[in-house]
Amino acid sequence: MNATSSHHTVPRLDTDILLVGLGPVGAALANLLGRYGVRVLAIDKATTIFEKPRAIALDNEALRILQLAGVRDGEFETVAIPQVQYRSPLFGRFARINSAGIIDGHPALVTFYQPELERLLREKLAQYPGVEVRLGIELATFADDGRFIKARLEDAVGNETHVRARYLVGTDGANSLVRRTLGLDFEGRSFHQDWLIVDALDVPDPIDHVEFTCDPLRPSPRMVAPGGRQRWEFMLRPGESPEEMERPESVRRLLAPWCDSQRIRIERTAVYRFHAREAKRFSEGRCFLAGDAAHITPPFAGQGLVAGLRDAANLAWKLAWVVQGRANERVLDSYDTERRPHARKIIRLARMLGAIVMPQNRGAAFAVHGLMSLLRLVPAARALFEDMKVKPQNIFDQGLFWRVRGSERLRAGTMLPQGWVRPATGGGPVLSDDALGLQWAMIGFGVDLSARLPAELLQCWQAAGGRVWQWCQRSQAQHLAPPVQRLEALDEALLPRRVPMGWVAIVRPDRCVLAEGPASEAETMLRRALELVAPSVSSAAATWPTPAYPIQEAEHAA
Ligand SMILES: O=C(O)CCc1cccc(O)c1
Predict the structure, then answer these.
(1) Which of 210, 296, 385 to mutate for ligand 1's pocket (most ligand atoms within 8 Å of CB)?
(2) Interacting residues of 358 by C-beta distance below 8 A, sequence separation 6+
(3) What is the pLDDT of residues 362-415, one digit of tens each?
(4) 302 within ligand 1 shell (Cβ under 6 A)
(5) Ligand 1: does its nearest atom lie under 6 Å from the Cβ of 233?
(6) Where are the transmembrane segments (predicted)?
(7) What does the DSSP assignment read for 434-486?
(8) Model-level pTM?
C-alpha cells in the first residue's frame, strides 16, 4: 500500500481493491484476496463488529469456502444439524429435511455464532501484508474513470482520505451505498411482517435440530446454536410493536409454550423485516457488489450468508488474476453471469419455504400443510424434499467454463467434489482443496500428464499460476516427471465412480471445473485454458508480473 501526503494534507492511498464493508462476506473476501497476494484497503464505518443475532446457518459449500479463505477446522464453533422439521398445529410433523452427513469434507448443515466468525475472519487479516483494515471510516463518494476508482473516505470527525483503487467491491450490506450510487436498483419484494429474533441460554430441554412451527397465527422457527444457545424467531402480529415485543416480559411470554421461560437467560433480541431482493446487476464497470449488497433472501432456507460467501469465492480469484496481470479483464464479466442466476434461485427457494413456514391464513395453512402431508406418502415426492433436492445446485448456466456435450463426467461449471488425499510430499491425510492450494489445477485422474503434454505448454501453465496433478487410487503405481505432483485418494469422492481413470479436469482456483474430458483431449483443453488465463501463450512466461505479495501456499502442498 503506498501512502503519500499531498500538499493539501489530504492523505492519498493507492491500492488494488477498495473493499467497502467488513461484515462476514467482506471479511471472507478480504481473506481470500489476502491469500492470493492482492493489495486491499478494507473499510467499515463501524468501529466494532455487530453483536446482534443475525445469520445462523452455514452449509457444506459455505464451510468449504471458509476453508479456502484459510479458516481451519475447529477455529470457530459449529453445531451440526441432523434435520430440519416442519410442524403444524393441525397435522403435526408434516415434512422434514435430512441434513445429516458430510458433503465435500464438511457437514451438510451447521449453525454458528456470527460474531465469533466475524472476529476470527478479522483477526486472520493481520497475517496478510497487503491487506489494510481501517475501521470507523466511511465511503463518502466515488467515481469510476474507466481506469481507476477514485474514492473519498471520511472518518467520524470529517477527516478525509483520498483513495485510488483499480477495483471497488461493495460488501456494504442491504442498504449498500455502493449499489445505490451505481443506480443498480434492488428488484423483488419485501415482507411486511416484522420478526423478533431471540437468542437464549440455559434453556431446559434444548433441541438439537431446526424446527419450524408453521402456525399461521404466529410462525415460530426454533433451532440449536453454538455455546449452549437456542434461537427462536417469532413473527409479530399486526399491531405488535417491536419495542414492546423485545421487552423481557414479552419475550418470556412468547417462550412460555416451549420451555420454562422464567428460568432461561435471554442473551440478545433483535427485530428484522425479511426481504427477497436482488440487484439488477452485480457489477458495473470497475465496481462489484457481493453479499447482502447484491441480494437479500428471507432466512427460511438458511442460505443468506452462504450466498454471500459464494460471491466472495467467485469474485476473489478473478480480481486477483486480473490485478496481477495473469488474466484478461473480461474474466470479471463472468462474476455477474455466474452468480446472479444462482442467487435468484436461492431467493426463490427461500420464498417457497416461506410459503410453507408462514402461510397467509388458516385456509392457506390447511391447504399447503395438508398437501405436504399427503405428498409424504409418495416416496419420490418425499425424497425430493427430505434429501434437499429442492435446493438449487451450484451449477452455472453460463460463464467461464466449457462443456463438451456427450463426454461429461464431472460437469464443467460445477464445483469439483472434495475428498481426502495424501500428497506425495508426505504427511497425513488432507482435504484435497488444501492439497491443491490456491492455484489453477490441471488434474489427471490415474494418468500422468507429464507424458502427454509438451514441456513448453506446461511451463506456460505454471507461469500463469497453474499446477499439474495426478489424482491416483491408493497404492496405484505411477512414474511421474515434474512438474506433475501426485495425490493419493483416500476415499471415493472422485475415483472411480464419479470420474473414470484416464480422465482430465482443469479446475479454477474457486474449485469450479473449467473443462473436463478424456486424457486424449488434454492438450486441446490446456491450450484453450491458457487463452483465458494468459493473454499470449508464447510470451506468457516472460511477461506475467508476480503478485504484489506472495500467494499463501498450503503447508502440505509442495
Ligand atoms: O431462520 C433462520 O434464521 C435460519 C433457519 C434455517 C436454518 C437452517 C436451515 C434452514 O433450512 C433454515
Answers:
(1) 210
(2) 193, 214, 216, 219, 235
(3) 999 999 999 999 999 999 999 999 999 999 999 999 999 998 777 788 999 999
(4) yes
(5) yes
(6) none
(7) HHHTTSEEEEEESS-GGGTS-HHHHHHHHHTTEEEEEEE-TT------TT-EE
(8) 0.95
- 388 CB near ligand 1 (under 6 Å): no
Cis-peptide into 496, omega within 30 deg: yes
What mean pLDDT is reported for the chain? Answer: 92
In the chain, the percentage of residues whose pLDDT exceeds 90 is 84
Q: Which residue in the block uniquely carries the three cell numbers 481413470?
A: 501
Q: Does the beta carbon of 56 sit less than 6 angstroms from any atom of ligand 1?
A: yes
Which residue shows C-alpha cell 465412480? 497
Query: Residue 451: which pLDDT band, with cuts at 50, 70 and 90?
Result: confident
Beta carbons within 8 Å of 542's beta carbon, 6+ residues apart? none
Residue 246 CB: number of other CB atoms within 10 A? 18
- Going by alpha carbons, the residue nearest to atom 9 of ligand 1 is 302
449 in ligand 1 pocket by Cβ < 6 Å? no
Left if phi > 0, otherwise alpha if psi is -120 to 50, otherwise beta: which for 205? left
Residue nearest (by alpha carbon) to ligand 1 atom 2: 299
Could you give the domains of the chain?
12-73+106-183+277-352 (3.50.50.60), 420-541 (3.40.30.10)
Residue found under cell 406418502:
377
What is the rounded radius of gyration, in angstroms, for the C-alpha atoms of the chain?
25
3-class DSSP assignment, residue 316: helix
Which residue has the CA at smallest separation from atom 12 of ligand 1? 302
State the helix-helix crossing angle for 522-533 and 455-463, rounded to 10 degrees: 30
Average pLDDT over residues 211-233: 97
Distance 186 CA to ligand 1 centre (A): 23
Q: Which of 191, 195, 300 should be mutated for ligand 1, with most atoms under 8 A from CB?
A: 300
CB of residue 301 inside a 6 A radius of ligand 1? yes
Position 353 scores a pLDDT of 97
Q: Which of 124, 97, 118, 105 is nearest to 46 (CA)?
A: 118
Inter-axis angle of helices 304-323 and 60-68, to 10 degrees? Answer: 30
pLDDT (mean) for 287-297 = 97
